Structure prediction request, 238 residues.
Amino acid sequence: MNSSIERIYNGVYKENPIFVLMLGLCPTLAVTTSATNAIGMGLSSAAVLVFSNLFISMLRNVIPDKVRMPAYIVIVASLVTVVQFLMEGFVPEIYAALGIYIPLIVVNCIILGRAESYASKNPVIPSIFDGIGMGLGFTVALVLLGAFREIIGAGQIFGIQVIPANYYEPITIFILAPGAFFVLSMLTAIQNKVMNKAAKRPGAKQKAIKDVGCGTSGCGSCGGCSGKIFNIGEQEEK
Prediction:
């Protein structure tokens, strides 16, 4: 698989930041009361992810290792400020609905995590596609959560009444804080079920620990493969 397409696939499905990695749950649970809010937060975070990966990858050989995290935060904060001004100017309704969660994108662990684990160690183009993949994965997860919560909790989607009020009594708990946990757990369970089925299909790639490194039985006395068994997923990608 082409590496750029693989980065997008990993972000959307295989390493989805919400359903698989469980990152960025604070804004996820807070802003998904509607699908519209979810799209606003998802796309703004995706834009910051892509451009932060771009700049951090470009500057990875310039930023001193001892101050890399403060430097990442400065880059991300500058991008978030631009996004905040753009949203306030062009989509004030969504800006008002998201409120404090827009500035908090600065400390979103998805963005800082990808900056530290991927963009700071890889060239520009793969880092851009990594940001696109993770941003799309985050947006898809938010929209799914927001859509389910809005339909079940209000009988609406994107503010449009899709279930007539005469035939359906909205379950309002789903648009409250506990509902976010219920929907997240259900969607995560579905994701895990699908991934487990895919892993058990005939011909699926099964990577055993004995296949990592030299493949001998004397690993207990050999330090050559130390730490590699914890990066099986990364080795499969490469």
